[in-house]
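Archive maintenance. Older records in this collection stored only the sequence; we are now back-filling the structure field for every entry so that each record is complete. The fields below show one back-filled record exactly as it appears after the update. Entries are processed alphabetically, and ABC transporter permease subunit is next in the queue.

ARCHIVE ENTRY
Title: ABC transporter permease subunit
Organism field: Nocardia vermiculata
Length field: 279
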Amino acid sequence: MRRARLWTASLAVTVPLLIAIAGPWFAVSAPRERQVPFGPSSWSPFGTDRFGRDVLAAALTGGRGFLLVAAVTVLGAYLVGFTIGVAAAAAPRGWIEELLMRPIDVLLCLPSLLIVMVAAMRSQGSAVAISIAIGVALIAPIARFVRMAADGVVRGPVMDALRMQGESRGYRYGGYAARALARPLAADVGVRFTAAMYFLASANFLGLGFDTSSTDWAVSVAANKDALTVAPWSVALPATLIVLLAVGVNLLCDELLADPAAVAARDLARAGTRRRGSR
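Back-filled structure field:
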């Protein structure tokens, strides 16, 4: 069962990623001339969008920018949040931790989507400004999570043992901390990536993100929603790709980073339930 879940999650991630990365190369063969809006297409069975562009060709070219902005945003936010969280957990004085974490608490109180909307309106939909705003919105929860995860590692018995042994090499501390934090932080990265996609899709859906004439997946969903009953694929195809990627990333993180003992116990319990049901 775990193998089946891994294959399902991998497929859910691979399909939108391949479309986003390699899609523009396949879309070059699509017709350049505009066709009838929300009508049949001469290139694919998915029909056309509001501009008369082929829906499949638009989906093939609309994912690269969307995913690139989301990935760069999460990377930048995690670099800042990780630094703050680890520094707060390892602070030798309580006032240093307070100085680092209290501004984070204030930032955590601000509605994340509001930050993104203000940045989008002030910058007239600049992708850079929106990416920075999403990163700022993600820093607070990342710093909080890292501080919580690192506190038990930095102040744990292993670190105390290294100090008692007179260990002075910093890489020994860093190596242990990296191994102890790898699993929870990797799982959290998947959650933050999904959150970044949510904020970016929300901004584009509200018309505050990329150019409304672009083929971006979220823009396509927003721009074609009025013709959902007439040309359903113009909305369903890009929306499905976004959902597949969001669900697939989290499922894949759950399966790859799950505690082996917990996974074995879960599978054993499910097997017992099935046997009792068969009786």
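Update note: The longest helix spans residues 170-205. The chain has a mean pLDDT of 81.
Entry marked complete.
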